[in-house]
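Colleagues,

Please find the record for the four-part complex below.
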Amino acid sequence: MFKPITLKDIAQSLGVSPSTVSRALSDSYEINEKTKDRVIAYAQKHNYIKNPIALSLRKRRSYSIGVIVCEVANSFFSQAIDGIESLAYSNGYHVIISQTHDSYKREVLNIEHLANRSVDGLIISMSAETKDFAHIEKLHQKGLPIVFFDRILENVKTHKVSSDNKEGSKKATQSLIDRGFKRIGHLANAPHLSITNERLKGYKEALIANNIEVKDSLVRYCHHGGGNQEEVVNAVNYFLAMEDKLDAIFVASDRLSVGCLLALNELKKYKNPPHISGYSNSDILDLLQPEFSCIRQPAFEMGRIATELLIQLIESKQEVTEFKTIELSTTFTQRQ
Amino acid sequence: MFKPITLKDIAQSLGVSPSTVSRALSDSYEINEKTKDRVIAYAQKHNYIKNPIALSLRKRRSYSIGVIVCEVANSFFSQAIDGIESLAYSNGYHVIISQTHDSYKREVLNIEHLANRSVDGLIISMSAETKDFAHIEKLHQKGLPIVFFDRILENVKTHKVSSDNKEGSKKATQSLIDRGFKRIGHLANAPHLSITNERLKGYKEALIANNIEVKDSLVRYCHHGGGNQEEVVNAVNYFLAMEDKLDAIFVASDRLSVGCLLALNELKKYKNPPHISGYSNSDILDLLQPEFSCIRQPAFEMGRIATELLIQLIESKQEVTEFKTIELSTTFTQRQ
DNA sequence: GTGAAAGCGCTAACAT
DNA sequence: ATGTTAGCGCTTTCAC
């Protein structure tokens, strides 16, 4: 069975000590050029690769970072992951992706699994279900480098990367108002998420700025982030069944936008359905739904920046006490 | 800094030897019940978790499996990954996902990285660009457990899981013929992929069965699997520019279906565009493009089965010499 | 029923 | 410039 060549093997074959080999391979200045060449040549010829596990044990570093997201089958997150990977690989880090499927239980399990010394740091986007943050705070206190992205945890002191949610929301809602829509519903994400509140604020601010009354009855939350289509369908049905017909719905997330459009599609019987506008990073939606105006987050860039900050955290010699909260701008695309 | 409690710590605190603690925690029969209880209680109270890295080094097993796919932002693959995860986790394995973005170079890099003792086995779907298989054959010969899925490597003797590509293709093409389409183009994937050939065969067989001439000029390959939209646009343009107008296009993959529909969307100026039918596991496409008939692969199930076979391979005591090639059926959905 | 010791593959003081 | 040694955290043989 698969038994790769070790450093010791090389040492033996070459009649030198393991430490010499180790030093030669890490190009130490104290090793004779000739020995170095011999060792490197031999290693290359035999396809030697350092055992990363032994290395990790020794250095107490795994050179891998963990990413916690609700799901990868989501344009926003898969683009963000591409950004994370691009920076991680170029810095010699490996990326381990873990999906919570927006379940609190899975989040706890996955984070603990990763944290227990198999990753050097974590990039986390909270699950929609999570209300208790003990599992994260514990790790953070223990000193595990963590960077939050998109779905932030406000009161944990570390780097945070998101888009300017309030602003994005406000822009989109304002655009609906500009187009003459007055009764605008808001299909919101799970109530505990940072993004939910910020996006709600943006929506409300736009209404207020235009002297439109803010009504809680026009806001519908999806407690599982749209994880089961049923809750989205229910919300859409609620909106459609309202006595005072809705003019438009502003949708709070990528997944919900998809869910909402699907729901509306199933309910074709309704004539004059409300106009839909919302968050989406999906190219498909973008082009197939020509009347869908959307807010796009710079997902790739957000991933890159989060990773950059995490690597800084991991590699910093002294303890970091200054933390950044970065908010990137979103792009709003007005259609038709 | 993040310094978790070790087995040695427990031993010291309890005044027993490390070996006793180790045995107690693995519930060895030779340990006194009382000692066991003491140890387990202490471990739980202090949140002790075995260091997986040390464990891996010792056992020469990482309890993690690597997954190589072109990209996760793809309905088919993300569903397959969900299937892989579901079985892996319930068997105590961890899943590491690695994306090739259909680049040969990335594939080699990622596979080597994972293989070098940080995973116990690999589930691979080949990159579109890959024509040279040495990197995989080498690992396979060394005894690393590998299961292929979807994009198979024919002449490597190991388990393979795919859908019945020829059959699926044939069904879809036949359905186009049944609807009166005669001049049917085929937008194919990269020519080296197993699925490309099988799907091409199905397409051709359907034509032949209906006495329609098979013309190579009606087949267009996308060498990067649709990785850059440009090649898809070019192919679509080629089809649209043909003198004898095409009635329909049969599209060979999930990603290409998206690309093809997008391209067509951009080229709206053409009246009476050809009818599109093809592979797709996307719920969005499914519902937003009501006239799009599609073949859906049982992605989740394929992932599950591949994982099951891989775990068998990993855990089998004696060498496995009998290998399975599993082909699951696809579902064809006829629209409008 | 428990402990001592060796070793998984590697690196880094500490020799020489 | 190179070798010796100890140790990262764990399991497992061999003693007792």
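Chain B has 13 helices and twelve strands.

Comments are welcome before we finalize the supplementary table.
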